[in-house]
Amino acid sequence: MIEVFDEPEVAAAKHRGGLRRLFALQLRDALKYLEKNIPDLQKMAVAYMPLGTHEELRAQVIEVALDRALLQDPLPTDAAAFQRRLEEGRGRLTLIANEVARLAATILAEYAAAARKIKDTKIQPEATADAAQQLQRLVPKRFLAATPWARLQHLPRYLKGIVLRLDKLRADPERDAARLAELRPQEQRYWRLVAERKGATDERMEDFRWLLEELRVSFFAQELRTPARQHQAIGESLEPAE
C-alpha cells in the first residue's frame, strides 16, 4: 500500500520507520542475540527506572543501533540498494549496539547523579526547580531514540553542569539568580515558539535549542567548557527564527 503525505518531513519519518521495520525483519536472529547481550543493561535499567522499564530501554538501544548501522542518509530507495545496505550493516550492528549502550550508560549515570543532587539541594528553590525542569527536558523517557546522535554525545556534560551549578549555589546564590534571570527570556522565547508550532521544529530551531544548553554551561559550569564553535555562535546571536 502506498500512502501520500502533505508534509515532506512526515513522509520522510514514515519512510524511515518502514525501512527500520524491514531491516529488523531481515535481522531477526541478530536482534534476538542483541536483546540478550546488551552490555550492563540491568545496571542501566536501575538508573532508568524513574523514566520507564527495562524492556523500553532495551528497545531504544536496539532502535538507535539499527538507525546508526542501516539508516544513515541517503536511505536506500530500491531493492538492490536495500540489500547492499543490509549486508553492510549486518556485520557492524553488534559493535554499534555496544557503542550505543556505553553512551546510554554514561548518560544514565550522570542523570542519576543530577537527580540526587536536585533532591538533596534544599536552598534556592527557584534554582533547583529550574535544574529539575532542565533535567526533565534533557532526559525524557525516550531520550536515547529522540535525541540526535551528535547531540547525545553532549548530554553527559550538560548533566554534569547541573551538579556543578547546584554545588556552587551556597557560595554565591545571587550570581545564580542573576544568570537565571538573563537566561530565562531566551528559553521562554524558544519554548513559546515550539508551542505555537505544536512541537514542530526546523533545523535552525534545533540548533538554537542546543545553544541554550551551551549557554547554561557557560553561565553555570564554565569549567566544563563549551566547544569553540558553539561559544562563538552564542556570542553572535541567541535569536531563533520567528
Overview of this protein structure:
By secondary structure, the chain is an all-alpha fold. It has a domain at 8-171. 75% of the residues lie in helices and 0% in strands. It has 13 helices and no strands. Helix 6 packs antiparallel against helix 7 (125-138). The longest helix is centred in the middle third of the chain and has 28 residues, at 93-120. The model has no long low-confidence stretch (mean pLDDT 90).
Number of helices: 13
Query: What best-fitting shape do the alpha-carbon axes yield?
Result: globular
Q: Report the sheet-strand fraction.
A: under 5%
Biggest β-sheet, characterized? none
The total count of strands amounts to 0
Looking at how many chains there are and whether they match, the oligomeric state comes to: single chain
Report Rg: 20 Å
Please write the string of helix (H) and strand (E) elements: HHHHHHHHHHHHH
How far is the N terminus from the C terminus? Answer: 38 Å
Q: What brief labels describe this structure?
A:
242 residues; mainly alpha; 75% helix
Write the layout of secondary structure elements.
Blueprint: H1 8-26, H2 28-37, H3 41-48, H4 54-70, H5 79-90, H6 93-120, H7 125-138, H8 143-146, H9 149-152, H10 155-168, H11 173-196, H12 203-220, H13 228-236
Report a brief summary of the structure.
With 242 residues, the chain is mostly helical. It has 13 helices and no strands.
